[in-house]
Amino acid sequence: MEIILIPIIAALVTAGLGKRSNVWISTLLSLIPLAVLYTYFTRFGVDNGWKTIFDLTWISENIRFTLGFDGLTGMLLLLTNLMVPVIVMAGIRDDENRVTLTALTLFMQGALNGVFMAQDGLMFYIFWELALIPIYFITLTMSGENAFKITLRFFLYTFIGSLAMLASLLYLFLHTANYSFSFESLRAVELSRIESIWVGAGILLAFVVKIPLLPFHSWQADTYTHSPAAGSMLLSGIMLKMGLYGLLRWYLPLAPESIEFFQPWIIGLSVAGVLYGALIAIRQKDMKRLIAFSSLSHVALIAAGIFTLTAEGLEGGVLQMFVHGVNVIGLFLVVELIEKSTGTRLLGELGGLAKSNRSFMIFFMLLALGTVAVPFTNGFPGEFMLLKAVYMYNPNMALLAGLTIIFCAVYIFRMVQFSMFGEGKHVVLSLKWNEYVAFGILSFAVLLIGFVPQMFIDVVHSSILQIVTWVSEAKGVLS
Known about the structure:
Elements: H1 2-17, H2 23-44, E1 51-60, E2 63-69, H3 71-91, H4 98-117, H5 121-140, H6 147-174, H7 183-187, H8 193-210, H9 220-226, H10 229-254, H11 259-282, H12 287-306, H13 311-342, H14 353-356, H15 358-372, H16 379-393, H17 395-420, H18 433-451, H19 453-475
Antiparallel strand pairs: 1-2
Helix pairs in contact: 1-2, 1-4, 2-3, 3-4, 3-10, 3-13, 3-18, 3-19, 4-5, 4-10, 5-6, 5-10, 6-8, 6-9, 8-10, 9-10, 9-12, 10-12, 10-13, 10-19, 11-12, 11-17, 12-13, 12-16, 12-17, 13-15, 13-16, 13-18, 13-19, 15-17, 15-18, 16-17, 18-19
């Protein structure tokens, strides 16, 4: 419970201190949940299933405030509580809105922790909505005449998806034996195939909008591009993982009879998204927009791997969720620093920045190599596992999805070339202590996961086997 309350209290403290709250204070406050998470790993472990660690009666005896912990939850909590301090210390450079953005980011940290720990369907929905509130206000701080229009489109997509998920959860609740929102009670509901398809569709809609998958992606590029850096990092690095996590934790166990119906559609749309995002990214001149479409391509491959319904696909998906969060937050930080130093993020107006700061170039190159999935960087193990899982499902699909390796190298190295090398603006691109620390954390993650990926896979292995078992018991199709 403390891992949820502490960031929310920290947000209130930050807002109360106002401009007296500096980067040091905000960063230290955002790091406290990481220390709490360490105690969760040591106390509860990751090998004995999804354990209830907090349980309190809320509305009635059967509608409870219940939180759980296992390896899957632990990985997403690690991503959230490691990356939020990075965002707070280095990603919020807007002096005018710094306090507001920091407070909203900390509040969102607490809500995201709730999303990943909720063991009760109603609590999951409440935390899901709570996590959306700060990002709406963060996106509203964006500049430009289309700011309200972009935020409204994002709101409508997510609101409709959330309502569909709530309707499905309510349907399951009304069919439980004891009118309970508990995960086990919802999972025990026996549905006909038609009922399962409709319930699964409602749950899926919320998640595919959040990821997003084609054709529910039209809110993404503009929102990522025009949001302040903190908003872009939170949306792409952590928030979209809510959708992927939801597939694993809620959709697969609660509506397994619908999987056979949706599987070919989701994998087909995901592979299409892999290609679409990569091809559009190649044509972009705006670095933030390029990263937005790159993100669309990468998360589509994760969704495809998850829907292969193999342990390797699911484990590779979780690993790549973590990897994508690290890399995309790092790339958005790179773009933010470039734009602040040069006044532009358009590739045609940049060049020669490597001469200005060699350390910055090294950090950028490491993140680029990880994104391209070069061996011994963090992107390689998960992408290999995902493509292998898709190949086992359909070799032709894997061949198409595998083209992302080539396309990704084209647009990422093009971005590096146009910004770092050649002739361009003569500017001084200097890094502050907090930015060195942030890049140090990100670079360490790129190399650590690249060299010892099994350490991270072992964390989620037990959780993934449990999910595979649940689905196989209901469906009888998993190996």
